[in-house]
Amino acid sequence: MLRPAVAPKSLELHFIALAAGVLLLVAVLSGILLFQSWRSYGAASEARQAFGSVRATIRVMELASAERGPMNAALGSALPVPEPVLASLDIARARTDRMIDALLAQHPPSSDAENDARHNEIQRIRQALIAARREVDERVATPREQLSGQMLWDAVSGMVRIIPQWQASMAANAGLVMRSEANAPSLLSLALLASELREQAGLLGSTYTPALTRQRKLTAEEQFRIERVLGRIDELRALIEARMNTQPDVRASDEYARMERRYFGDGLAYLAWVREQASRQSDEASVSTRALAAAYVPLMGSITQFRDVLLDEMERHITEHRVIAARLLSITLGATALLVAALAVALVQFRSRVIQPFAVATRIIGSIANGAAPARIPAGRHHGEVEEVFNALRVLKENSAAQKRLEAERDRLIADLAHTAETDYLTGLLNRRAFEKRFDAARAEWDEHQPMLAFILFDIDHFKSINDTHGHASGDLALKAVADLCRTTWRHADVVARVGGEEFAVLCRTRNARQAIDMAERMRACICACTVTAETGATFSLTASFGVACVSWSHAEAASVLFRAADELLYLAKLNGRNQVQQRTLG
For 483-524, what is each residue's pLDDT tens digit? Predict the structure, then answer.
């Protein structure tokens, strides 16, 4: 029997077609692997660059904060200010300026819109820093008898306000690092907490500047500022301690222990002694701002060293990640070449050794790309380049899972930050900033179908007496009790916030002014019926004074003065004996 003359040719063509199909599939898969490896390498490079910017910004924040040490010494010196003090201030400023120049060098003007925006933001913050320094120089040159405590605090506050601007400017780069590096959320969060702790530690020292400069006792307002900063420091300490429990790095643990000993031990003990000295009845304080800076600033160095160890560890991880990504890219390129060569030599085994394994690989890659659970990746069933492909797919699968975990952690952190930014940490109510945003939104959405807008401002009567008699912890319990009453008394649609120390605000829509008064009276009665048990076991009752300002839709233009009107009515309630409601309808 004769064979068809075209059979060999057809088989060859079929074989070539199969080989071409397999080679095409290999090319597609290799391209995907190369793309993933290249993207991983590019992400690691971007993360390294972003981390460099973040670290430089943290260093700028540290140096800008460190300027306050010689600044406080200059403000506390008699005129003419000694040359060594002024020279120390100039040196500190020069260090900050050099670091800002280095940060700008990382973001030179270019065609990249994002990079240009970062460059312009750094320049804008630099100008704000220059303006704050100018105000400090004016206060340093002011005759000391004309220099009030408020003027001193305004100068200090001007420098303090620069730091949050630097923090905000590095948010995008910090987010990029966290998305790119598996260890970034824990390490970088710790480093940022340490950086914030360094800033709060510096702010705590600066809080003493007005009293020490004027050689007088600390005022009640200054005592409150000190307590507020100490509260934030305690909060940061707790956050750092919680995260350190998950960090196995020995060097970081050693620096953490050193920080606990040097700053939280010696540093805070020294400031407590300074506070005691500055709280005495004597008209003269025994500590100068220069002496405070000389003793306190070195103790803060342990915070910086702890932070730098964390940043060094982060940088090491990023560098290792980039090296691994480059190695993976090289391995993928080599594996692709070997695979193509093997297929060219072993086409006779095309189906059993290439087509079927890559069909499995295709399904796995499709599952990973679609976000579905991929099939089990076979291990040990193949040899050579095919096994390397499955190893690469295993890495791809692990990277995909890690990326999902990072995205979930990022989303949770963003949600936590958004909630923290709008919530009063003690009462759980809205804070003043969030309340003002909702007040503006309510005014913008107001129409004739909502006849009356009521603004209710109230505070706890004799709150200072509660703190003095029962302690600040009992005062906090009173604030929490009032907050709980707010949650059960006011309607769900009402906007309730703590806008001051013992001051609360409510924004609500009512049918008429009478309804707003009734609501305020109901809240006042609830507060009167409330008793609070102090930590000592003693109980005390509360009263509150209310100012209710209402405006109708027909006089909507008067809504902008609701806050001021309510504040005046609250003051009137205080003058008339407290524990009452004062109301006025505007327009």
Answer: 999 999 999 989 999 998 899 999 998 888 999 999 999 999
Residue 545 three-state SS: strand
Single out the residue of 138, 259, 340, 25 nearest to residue 332, CA to CA: 340
pLDDT in tens, 341-386: 776 676 666 666 666 666 666 666 766 666 666 667 666 666 666 6
Q: What is the token pair recorded at 440?
A: 């503006």
Other CB atoms within 10 A of residue 284 CB: 9
CA 419 to CA 487: how far, in whole Å? 17
Pairing of strands 544-552, 581-586: parallel
Displacement of CA 309 from its chain's centroid (Å) = 20
Contact predicate 394/34, CB 8 Å: no
Question: Alpha carbon of 34 to those of 115, 252, 362, 565, 573: distances in Å?
Answer: 28, 37, 15, 67, 74
- List 532's β-bridge partners, or say none: 540
* DSSP 8-state secondary structure symbol assigned to residue 347: G
The answer to whether 456 and 565 have CB atoms below 8 angstroms apart is no
Across residues 389-404, what is the average pLDDT?
70
| 187 closest CA partner among 172, 171, 174, 200 | 174
In this predicted model, what pLDDT tens digit does every residue of 259-304 receive, in sequence order?
A: 999 999 999 999 989 888 888 755 555 688 888 888 888 888 888 8
| Separation between Cα atoms, residue 351 and residue 364, nearest integer Å | 19
CB 179 within 8 A of CB 410: yes
Both tokens assigned to 104: 């700008």
Q: Give the integer Cα–Cα distance in Å for 305 and 528.
A: 52
Q: How many residues does this entry show for the chain?
A: 587
| Alpha-carbon span 491 to 508, nearest angstrom | 9
CB 424 within 8 A of CB 497: yes
Instruction: Kindly provide the b/e burial profile for residues 197-228, where b requires at least 16 CB atoms within 10 angstroms of the residue's own CB.
Output: bbbbbbbbbbbbbbbbbbbbbbeeebbebbee
- CA dist., res. 202 & res. 72, Å (int): 11
d(Cα 516, Cα 234) in Å, to the nearest integer? 40
DSSP state letters, 47-69: HHHHHHHHHHHHHHHHHHHHTHH
Name the residue among 174, 165, 170, 225 with its Cα closest to residue 200.
225
* Contact call for residues 249 and 257 (beta carbons, < 8 A): no
CA distance 390 to 381: 10
List the end-to-end C-alpha distance of the chain, in Å, as a whole number. 112
Nearest to 438 by CA among 497, 479, 478: 497
Structure token digits, residue 470: 């029962």
Angle of helix 268-278 versus helix 289-345 axis, rounded to 10: 150
Distance of alpha carbon 50 from alpha carbon 57, whole angstroms:
11
